[in-house]
Write a structure and sequence with these properties.
Number of domains: 1
CATH class: Mainly Beta
Radius of gyration: 26 Å
Low-confidence stretches: 28-33
């Protein structure tokens, strides 16, 4: 039997989006007149949703949280290449969670939730018509967690285990079209496809499904009167299921930008006089850059520091990011760009180098 008082919320949501795009790609600087492409497109989308949530006690120390969201997205896309789409997506999401309070300092929970991301369109002169539209993605996620506080030890922690199943997973990837003017025919000497260096584009694709599971944990500890520590650890495993990119079968491979571990640890010192100092250490495992290739980053660790003085109405601090000037990759791209044969190569975007700065603020 339900007992006690329940809290609830309900609402409606609406959005109207209209967007026009004109793209003109020219190859005249390279004397590629046949690479002169133009595309004008128009996109409209109307979203309407209703949602609600109910929270309250069930019996004793057991609490319940239930929420649901119903949404419809009506969209229209047309362009000067005579393509036109009018999809209507009806999407349902929500959650069911049970929470149990062992004490005022300890709570556990179990939850099952369903989420979604609306579909859309890839716009560009070099996007193949078959890749122009992508579908909504749906996700079922199960979680179990525990939050604990030890007041005497001035320590708080939480840990969460999760398993997520993704359907029609949206994948951000890239594409490069074959070149119509390859100097050595349609293939490079190494057997790879001779590509158009001006056609590299990003687009969103749908994988059949994907799986994500792992554990996340964190803690906060006032170790001493003036010194506090905090940290987090994430362990993650992912894979694509039933997903092929061209001739490549990615089923079972890790998803892009999904490192198998990441961590952080910080130490903060605060003086009663207002002086403070904080040191941060973080790290991340290697990860695949994209679904279109198997290029990977390297694991890396970073150190940041910030120190200064805080008063009642003002503060000033000196900070250093990436103290040891670590060179690390945050994105990777795999395409042909170097003449005469334009072979596919990995190009990397590096993270920020060492940065030193001063920040001041005043609160009125």
């Amino acid at each position: 039997m339900l007992a006690g008082r329940f809290a609830w919320i309900a609402g409606i949501y609406g959005m109207r989006l209209t967007e026009d795009n004109t793209q003109h790609d020219q190859g005249q600087y390279l004397n590629f007149d046949q690479l002169d492409n133009r595309l004008t497109s128009r996109y409209q989308a109307t979203n309407a949703a209703v949602y609600g949530q109910l929270d309250g006690p069930v019996a004793g120390k057991l609490r319940l949280s239930v929420g649901v969201r119903l949404e419809q997205r009506q969209s229209h896309y047309s362009d000067t290449s005579s393509l036109a789409f009018d999809p209507r997506d009806r999407m349902t999401g929500g959650q069911f969670a049970l929470l149990y309070d062992f004490s005022a300092q300890s709570t556990s929970y179990l939850s099952l939730s369903r989420g979604y991301k609306a579909g859309g369109f890839n716009i560009g002169t070099d996007i193949d018509p078959s890749r122009r539209r992508f579908n909504p993605e749906y996700l079922w996620n199960a979680e179990a967690g525990l939050r604990q506080t030890w007041r005497d030890a001035k320590l708080a922690s939480d840990v969460t285990f999760f398993y997520a199943k993704r359907k029609d997973q949206q994948v951000s990837t890239s594409y490069q079209a074959p070149s119509p003017i390859c100097p050595n025919g349609s293939r490079n000497p190494d057997g790879s496809v001779c590509v158009d260096p001006l056609s590299f584009v990003y687009y969103t694709d749908n994988a059949a499904s994907g799986v994500n599971y792992g554990v996340e944990a964190s803690f906060r500890w006032a170790a001493l009167q003036r010194l506090s520590l905090a940290g987090s650890l994430g362990l993650l495993r992912t894979r694509y299921e039933n997903y092929a990119y061209g001739e490549r079968n990615l089923s079972g491979r890790d998803q892009a930008h999904a490192p198998r571990y990441d961590f952080s640890l910080s130490a903060t010192y605060r003086s009663p006089l207002g002086w403070f100092s904080r040191l941060d250490w973080s790290g991340k495992d290697s990860f695949y850059f994209d679904a279109s290739n198997d290029a990977r980053s390297s694991p890396y660790q970073l150190f940041n520091w910030r120190g200064g003085f805080e008063a009642k109405h003002w503060s000033a601090s000196l900070w250093v990011r990436n103290i040891f000037d670590k060179r690390y990759a945050v994105r990777g791209f795999f395409f042909g760009d170097e003449p005469p044969d334009f072979p596919n190569k990995t190009y990397v975007r590096w993270g920020d180098p060492r940065q030193i700065g001063v920040t001041g603020s005043y609160n009125f």
